[in-house]
Records
---
Amino acid sequence: MSFDYDLFVIGGGSGGVRAARVAAQTGATVGLAEEFRYGGTCVIRGCVPKKLMVYASQFSEAFEDAKGFGWTVGDTSFDWGTFIAAKDKEIDRLEGIYNKNLKAAGVNLYDSRAIVTGPHEVTLSSDEVITAKTILVATGGTPFVPDVEGKELAITSNEIFDLKEQPRRAVVVGGGYIACEFACILNGMGTEVTLLYRGEQILRGFDNEVRDFVAEEMRNKGVNVVVGADVSKMEQTGDGIVVSTDNDQTYTVDQVLYATGRNPHSANMGLEDVGVKLGRKGEIVVDAYSCTSVPSIYAVGDVTDRVALTPVAIREGMAFVETVFKNNPTSPDHGLIPTAVFTQPEIGTVGQTEEEAREEGEVDIYSAAFRPMMHVLADRSERMLMKLIVSKASRKVLGCHIVGHGAGEMIQLAGIAVKMGATKEDFDRTVAVHPTAAEELVTMSTPTR
């Protein structure tokens, strides 16, 4: 058969863009459709603008701490509009780079929604029909808001980046990393924040000691962390949005941000009509090589609901190209992925939690909580946590967890060691870099339990 393209990609986010560009570099003819903006969730309304907000929110403490180091700091204030304008300028610049790089690689771009109308066929919103030998779906995920009375009054992580004014008071609903990050961001910018989570502790799925540690530090910084409570309804009043909870509490705020999870963005794409199998949440079911139940259709990234992280989507896109266009069947490696959570204090983690490790065998736990040097002169009580989980049998470091300033930077390098199978003795043989907080990773000598 003759096709318009060797590959047609639906979705211009991290996974789709990388797959399209690298496939084109092999000599394949490639088309890509994106209905919103190039860069996807990460660049437009996720990782990048969020990290810029994290940086902005951290200056409030930096100004306070500077006094302890001899600096005279005058009156300070935060202007939301100035920040949003600067953020938008940077996002526009990055989107332009994505667009330029795709075109430079020879990818034909379609600013359009696309649906799958056959094993080798997609139809654009203009009704143009395009054929391709292989179709790659990389449409990402979308925020989920439960069906609660007044849900139309809430926003999600999609909309917060475009608010015209900073809310004075806010309720953030959810206990995952997105909810906790935005609670900390808004708090650092001066918003009065309540975090509502229905579970018994925030950050489900993370190491329990880390969860407890971060929750305590968030409260110390002024975030009202309320667990065991969920929203029962929201009502608009003259004074703001009244949020009622199932434990008979009410909060009157200017903004309600829901961060209660994300669902794969696969609805109304024609996938099931052509035989592509979807899971319970709408995730596209794929095999180890990202192939769907239709041999000519593949999927990568958050729409597959495997590991919803930008670098993982990129790796999956690269593995797809190796498999389909380089005759080198490659399965993306989802093991021992280092992860950063930009709460305040931030989290860096790789490998197993203590709870997971104990289910598989006997372990030694090395843990240290301390006030780092940077907080001493500032007279800030905030502590750091360093934790290693070590197998008693093999002495391998099964998990590394860091909470505190620079945790995300540290875990990238610690992740290399854990991925390589380093033992506790390998850590011990490494000379400490002094004076740093990170030296605790190689100086903890006695198990705490």
---
Amino acid sequence: MAGRILVLNTGSSSIKYELVDMRTRERPARGLVERIGEEQGRLVHHAGDAPPYERREHFAGHDEGLAAVMEAFRTTGPELDPVAVGHRVVHGGDRFDRAVLVDDGVIAAIEELAPLAPLHNPVNLAGIRVAREAFPEVPQVAVFDTAFQLTLPPEAYTYAVPREWRERLGVRRFGFHGTSCAYVSRRAAAFLGRDLAELDLIVLHLGNGASATAISGGRSVDTSMGLTPLEGLVMGTRSGDVDPALPGYLARVAGLDAEHVENLLGHQGGLRALAGTLDMREVRARDDAEARLALAVYTRRIRKYVGAYYALLGRADAIVFAGGVGEHDAATRAESLTGLERLGIAVDPARNEAPSQEERAVSPPGAEVAVLVVPTDEEGEIARQALDLITRSAGDT
């Protein structure tokens, strides 16, 4: 059954895609369609060692964007003959604890869950619908960001809010970045030469979105994101933790309604609010009061969660950094763990600052708690889960 999986990550105005060869683990093609719906869209397609194939035109919708992707494959290759199409879906609520084959019932469920992720689920569905039309005979697989986090125990996912909210409205912590956590935790165990079932890990996925997850025996036991991806760490444009009374306060003193406050916290918060930019590289390049404060708030929040999760787990075998910032920003790694030496957590400056794109330890040799950098591969994990599912499904028929 092993073959090529087309992975689609559909955003509000973009389609990110990769063709993953599950026999060789190579990526014969990858690309991005961006600015869908805008006057001047852009497609960039990379196939092997060939020069990038590029188109600049108006893509009115995701159907036109995917049609351009298929034209790019026909023009520059490779042959687009996937055995399945894997889709990233942000929110599966408490209904989906694993990848599923897409049918009309699954589509209806993702639609019903859209209020929990209004910026993500509807566009994830757009990608699924377009792909079903483009590949009517090819299995479509939905892989949910929330699935890995559904192992949270009740004391971790339950908010102390009225029973009606919890039971009728489904208010609870869900957590996200599950696809990354699944991949990173498995790779961390392999790097350490240990069985994942015997490890306690704290995974820090630091990118434009950021989260901390406590993993014991391969299962998530706590995570910083909550009902939505807004809770937890400071992110590129998201505030992370704030006083829950903040929207009420702003309504009283500034006349701001809840939707407006939610939008500001999600799109104008985080590093953008503190330093005027969501790009950590730009913040690091500056030496002014705003940038210094932004970095202090950002790394202090991470350190706070690491300490909390160490206490919750009772120990830690490794702290694992992933995501764009986690993988590439040595200063953030060092600053986020400063002061935790008494817990056995430390960063070796030479190891930490050595440039590398590989999985590696950045803690001192023989450290009590390993500090690892594990580049995440969400597309590869989606492809793996998709192949596992269609292989099992074929065996059941």
---
Amino acid sequence: MGIKTINIKLPTDYSEQLLRNQISRQLGIREFTFRTESKSLDARNKRNIFWQLRVVVDSPQLKGDDAKIQEELIIPFKKRKQKIVVVGSGPAGFFNAFALQKAGFEVTLIERGSEVKIRGAAIADFEQGGAFNGANNYAFGEGGAGTFSDGKLTSRSKHISKEKLFILKSYVEAGAPKEILYMTHSHLGTDNLRKIVVNLRNEFENLGGTFLFNTLLEDLRIVNGKVNEAVTSAGSLEAEAVFIAPGHSAYETYRMLMRNGVPFRTKNFAIGSRMEHRQETINLAQWGQATLPGVKAAEYRLTSQADGLHPVFSFCMCPGGTVVPAAAYAETNIVNGMSYYKRGGNFANAACVAGIHPDELAGKTVSPLEALDQLQKLEEQFFNYAGGYSAPFCSIRSFLAEKKLAGKAASSFPLGLLPAPLWTLLPKPVVVSMKVGLQDFIRKMRGFENGNLLGFESKTSAPIQVIREKNGLVEGFKNLYIIGEGSGYAGGIVSSAADGIRAAMSLVEGN
């Protein structure tokens, strides 16, 4: 019995039988089993687009073993009496609590919003003209912001292979498609995520964990650098350790932490608008054809050095997706993107953002609190311009020419578009860089100038970062951890979840 790893090129609409035939011919064997280790689309030559697979084959007709063993995350279990409070049920908070519960701690996970079914109903009501819900929206509620997203599982973070494998396997066990274990650009889709977060919550509770919805963290009781209690809207919770995964939208949580002496610093982040095109336009640009058998919808990832001062890049691309009203607070107006697993919608969207530092936005050195305040003012400015939650928009051509667009445009955005001079609503340095970046994007992708720019995109990352020790503890505190996107050290589902797991393991290893 031997194991061999081989690379295979296959047409985009290949069948499993064709894959088996290719393995048989390439290795000269008939009796075998196999598993796909990686799969990526090669569309560099539009006349010859194909899947590139790496396959591990197991057969009695082979000799030797060249398969790489994936190192697994080991969470040692023992009954531990320490009570742990975890705040926030996004990827960082949930996987932190999940790992700690598996290790034997008594874990209580609190979430300001409701379970996903109630959250989804509140979002649907809002998009149908109902009132904005401050606890259940695209930022807050079960699963965090990621639940209502494209569910991308890619990450640029290095040295998290064990954590990533644990995360992906947990998702598969909770109902995710097995392809996420090997697809190069894997995604879950919001429809899958809404089921997965419920199944994961059930598993957490089956392990003995406690999950409290509609419970907002309001304060911390701290003595000599140690948090003794988490004060919530539902009462106080005693804790031997507190892990806070606020996401990058929880402004009042940030401010509460600052009042309690948690040290933060400002950092670079990125803001801009969301680009939207007909999906067919993107398909034609990337594939040279309107559809491609065996592939859902074309994606893109674009970067530009722009003016040399502020890099411009696409972010959170949602093929066949929807632009959504992603305000976390009433009287703020921001947008984001979301896709279903099949990515079957008529539009493609992605953020177009420029990297910048809060000090440059303000024209002076600002504190972390001031950085939050100025970002919130920008979000409020878009709300005031729109007089609500419709999305101020203009065409890409209008933005480049600074010529206001009149009339209507087709869009996936559910609350309507409002023609607007976005070049006057966005900060000037961002506008200058975005214009150069968009011109680069147009040169790289045919037809890209035919899209629109919608609203204000402000949630690519946080403008501040907590100061942490190497073991993840907040500097100056004995038992307080800030994790995930809200910490300023992670971004996206996988890296945030991995950050939560690593913080959990630092406590596990110390106990």
---
Amino acid sequence: MRILHTSDWHIGRSFHGVDLLADQSCALEAIAELVAECRVDVVVVAGDVYDRAIPNADAIDVCNKGFEAIRAAGAVIVATSGNHDSPARLGAAATFAAAGGLHLITRIGSVDRPVVLSDEHGPVAIYGIPYLEPETSRVELGVPQARSHAHVLDAAMARIHADIAARGVPRSVVLAHAFVVGGTATGSERSISIGGVETVPLDAFAGIDYVALGHLHSPQTLAEGVRYSGSPLPYSFGERTHRKAVWLADLGPHGLVGVERRDLPVVRPLSRLTGTVDELLTDPTFDAARGHYVSAVLTDVVRPVDAMRRLQTRFPHAVHVEWQRLQSDSALPYRARVRGRADIDVARSFFTDVYAEPSAGEMTWLRRALAAAVDENRADPELPLEETA
């Protein structure tokens, strides 16, 4: 049996305010093409199908079309809910959907009720563990004393192992949405730590042929049969050097026989560019980033006016701008930088930092404002005339 492992679709997510639905649709189409090309039997989605608990209509439409394309390509789908999903909403029509080959496992009480599929070697039991928040899952799992993610996951795995033994199935797959020790976050994941340790140990999954993990957004191998597929698209500029991928896991008659990485196409690259606005607009070095999502770090001496609009004339997909003024004393604490300087000099520097070099008229306004402040201090004996640094 061939299994394609994916996760963290986050359908409906935006990127610095930019709608990603078209990009996500392309990524799901690429996954469906892989299903057909590689003769995949089962696609597993290990949580965070949507980016929010109540997805909008357009996000639902993109997700449904993705499911339909994968199913039409020949694969059964097994998906669980992640910490971004609403289990009740994602699994609302689970029984009906299962008849069409889409199995949605979103209930904690269903962790030991697998989807059982068969190939020429016999049955394979595929178990889904939805995201387990300790406070809301410990009672349902029968461990009211549990307070950590590790404790509730152990309880879920105990139920799964008991069911495997009772069924006598020789091959098993588990989907889990969790932060496993040894994994590395990318920065675009939402923390799942609420008053406790969010990680769970790798050995919690001992005895399972293949564990399809979700939550972390880059492809990672924790053990031969325990892996993160990561998200199909980058969701932060920290992921700009990552190549997104899925795993193809093959099960033979006695368990896992091999895992192959298949890279996904880059829908739109990400670039982080540094320079003055004029350099970014004219330097041919930056030509390759014209069609990328761009984050620009501006090094102009004076904060540029209308920088985003200007940059988008060359980089139409620029989505983020920050100003990083280069100055020799920038590492000094603010108090040390202003010590011994006249009030008007401090005010002038502040005006320059947040807007531009003040004109003669603006300097006159600043002097009048400072003089009025001094007069007010002298008129009110409760206010100090000056403060020492």
